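Annual report, structural modelling task.

Input specification for the TUI complex:
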Amino acid sequence: MVKSVICDMLGIEYPIFQGAMAWIADGKLAAAVSNGGGLGIISSMNANEDYVRQEIQIARSLTDKPFGVNVMLLSPHADAVAKLLVEERVPVVTTGAGNPSKYMKQWLAAGINVIPVVPSTAMARLVERAGAAAVIAEGGESGGHVGELTTMALVPQVCDSVRIPVVAAGGIADGRGIAAVFMLGACGVQLGTRFLVAEECRVHRNYKNKILKAKDIDTMTMGKRMNRPIRCLKTPFAREYVKMEYAGVPDDTLREKYAGAFRLAAVEGDEQEGCFMSGQIASMVKKEQPAAEIIRELFEEAENVLNGAQKWVK
Ligand code: TUI
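The model returned the following structure:
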């Protein structure tokens, strides 16, 4: 059995979080992951507090296990969602796309485990000082908004910089990836792309098909010029977007265009205008399965790999 301090800290069976994918990670998916022994996480993306309250209720109606809510710090509704999470006393809050310091006091006072995504050692140290229970070190292999460093480089550096537990994210699709980041010092993992094809995931059929068909070189980043790099599948929209970035189209116009494109991909399955965020490991995602089966399979593989590691030592 693969266990770590993160399991005891959060009361979960397997040290795995499901990434908070915008327009995708709802209460139903989060509950399925939590029922499977991991930590399901609801994405609050750019949604208002009413949406988030409703998804929390859905998750609570489907599971008694702990789950989390992610606050996307660039959201215009971040203040209201932050307050709602205190009222709802959710067990875990993860944050992304910024510095969560201004919310930390209220969350800690409510007894919430705060686990920010950090793209650097500086941000990891900062949130540790502010009271974070753990950090998620997310490398640029992941889907969505990405930092500069890769998982391979970021995880050991973050582990050396803080005393709190480190969860690794980015580029992990199977038990080999889990074993590898444990070797780098992580004590948990967060996976997004693999859960996109979970049976309980309600993302549009076209999105699942695109992930299942993707090859190794099928992702790219867009939004780099305006300092908001987003990893997504290479689609007509993404290629056109990058052309527009370097053709002098104003940042506000570009930002509006991509925010709408996440919904178009996830909800409408629009293959022309949608932005299909995906990690670099999409080609390793080969079949649809219930979330609980994905988790069991991942940790069976990880256990085998870790047990076999002795073969390298002569
Ligand atoms: O947040 C993500 N991935 C995301 S968010 C998203 S939706 C979105 N909507 C509008 C604009 C941008 C994105 C799609 N995918 N992952 C976690 C993550 N956080 N990756 C990188 C970071 C991060 C970056 C900078 C965390 C902290 C940070 O701090 C910078 C600073 O100094 O404030």
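The two ends are 25 Å apart (CA to CA).
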